[in-house]
Amino acid sequence: MKCVHLDFHTSPYIENIGSEFNKAEFTQTLKDAKVDLITVFAKCHHGYSYYPTKLGTMHPHLKFNLLKEQIEAIHDAGAIAPIYITMGWSEKDASEHPEWHHIDFWSKKRIAFGFNGGKLDEPEDTPLSDCSWITLCPVGPYQKYLEDITREVCEQFDVSDGVFYDICFMRDACVCDSCVAGMKKMGLDPDNYEDAKKYYRIKRIELMKSLTGIVHEYAPNATVFYNGGADMNRPEYAPYQTHFELEDLPTAWGGYDFMPLRAKYFEKFGKIFWGMTGKFHHAWGEFGGFKNRDALKYECADMISLGASMSVGDQLHPCGRLDKSTYSVIGYAFDYASKIERFSENTKAYTDIALWSSHTDADVGCSKMLQIMHLEFDVVDSGEDISKYQCIVLPDRVKFTDDDKKRILEFVNNGGKIIASGESIFDELGIKMNGPSGFDKDFICCEIDEITTPFLSYCSAYSVECDGEVLAKVHEPYFNRTYGKFCGHKNTPFKLESASYPALVKKGNVLYFAHPIFQAYNASGSYVLERYIKKAFDCIYDRGIKIENLPSCGRVRFRKSEDKSFFALHLLYAPPINRGNVCLLEDFPTLGGVKISVKVDKTIKSVRSEPDGEEIKFIQNGNEVSFELDALKLHKLVILSW
Ligand SMILES: [Zn+2]
């Protein structure tokens, strides 16, 4: 499905709202751009509504029911129109109801997002930074108001296409008067962070159930999404979402490697999920900012390669006319997507390696490494069945329950391979943890081609005991860098003799990095650490996908159809570049001679690229299928049929 998230946060100081809205033109623009779904606004962050409302305030310069007209135009285009209602940010409500402000647990101050230190009383002509809003807490009277607004929207409009609530989870605790009173009533201590988090969780789940309940009274099958609630570190909210929209602006929010990890995490809930990027050069609300159309095509292909639907963020001009250039860019990307998206429907990642989520940034580092190694992988969590995998990676900070330990031991005893690091280890795996070494940064000695001397780990090892095969050694620094003792500009040099504990050790089916290596790699991006990790993986894991002549920025995804007879292999290549304050894709060089070998559980009858349908010569030896691509530019979809 090809979606647009059409923001419409519109200042009361702008007149003639919707004056250029033309239903037929709106419809045609969406049709031409092949849009299947577009979100439209009931209520925006300025606090104004775009339909005649009894409970709120219609935008002061809107003269007609714009939302109704937009929905009709969207339906005329054969698309669907979920309705957007703001939750956490509503400027008008925030100024009229200071008692609704979200109060931060630690500072006891309202959360004035983006304002200069939370200062709201600057002179009126002070320039305002981007994305400046006061956050509201939807507990107490504001919850009732949100419920009433939802009911009003459901009364006036057919909400079968869905409802989207925005800004739902800005913090994990609130101590506004209403929350404090509620906590006391429940016997919780508002000064205790864990109690405040517990209350927040209970009330947010209550709110989600209540609002979804109202929408479903009117349209039982409507999608209802609470934005901000598709967070790997807040899995408790996942059951209350009808689907997941993985908002991620790679250009402004830290690059292209986050979405795949989240997609793999949320895919396992078995609900529809889509990636959400933007048409902007930078981020939301950027009028006149454009993304390279090939970059957007890459992002859409990337989402398809992950089994996701795709959503592109835009912001409608106050005049109500969809921007011609924007829909030319979106249409270009969606045209390509429309030709290949069917190969993503009802498919699942086909892999024998999984990342066990630690719910920390170690997952990001680990996922980056797996992607750089051109591997397809799943993400698993505590309590899940891991018996189908060849190898499980336990990055840096996994916390195990007794049941998890039992299942991991059973997995290893049945021939499964474990790659563990940092704290993600327990004695029964044959590695005894004595605790942190106490150094700030140490060194690793392991021969990696031309690197034969100790290299910086950008972190420090845990001291462990193991009678397995030592594959790399630790070299401690002479001392930690402090005010009292330091050496030169940066870290202290290494001692010439190695430490008594190992850096990398292999014991049976377990490979263990004594460093929190994935966090260190994520933070440092060190090329040597990258090669060290790769070399270590190859000591224990027999890769299911082997690729030659694809650079580190190349991405590989391999999916198997659940109801048809094919595997879909996606290859993507575009090196991200940092320019100004963005990470962008501008160059799409053509690669030749990319050699691929994948292990499959079927006898393959044909290999072809799509959408052009060109046949590719291949060889199958047992379960291994090999072929070569003459040219890879931006994205190549290869279908292996059985
Ligand atoms: Zn509160």
Average pLDDT confidence is: 96
* Percentage of residues in DSSP E strands: 15-25%
The radius of gyration over CA amounts to: 27 Å
CATH homology group of the largest domain:
Glycosidases
Give unreliable regions as ranges. none
**Largest sheet, strands/sense/barrel:** 9 strands, mixed
The CATH architecture assignment of the largest domain turns out to be Alpha-Beta Barrel
Bound small molecules, deduplicated: zinc ion
Keyword list:
642 residues; alpha/beta; TIM Barrel; Rossmann fold; Immunoglobulin-like
Q: Would you write up a description of this structure?
A:
With 642 residues, this protein is α/β, with parallel strands linked by helices. The protein has three domains: 2-94 and 138-168 and 224-345, Glycosidases (TIM Barrel); 352-543, Rossmann fold (3-Layer(aba) Sandwich), CATH 3.40.50.880; 546-641, Golgi alpha-mannosidase II (Immunoglobulin-like, Sandwich), CATH 2.60.40.1180. Helices cover 26% and strands 24% of the residues. The chain contains 13 helices and 34 strands. Helix 4 (141-156) runs parallel beside helix 6 (193-218), helix 8 runs parallel beside helix 9 and helix 10 (361-372) packs across helix 12. The longest helix is centred in the N-terminal third of the chain and has 26 residues, at 193-218. It is globular, with a radius of gyration of 27 Å. It starts with a strand and ends with a strand. Bound molecules: zinc ion (ZN). Zinc ion (ZN) binds next to helix 5.
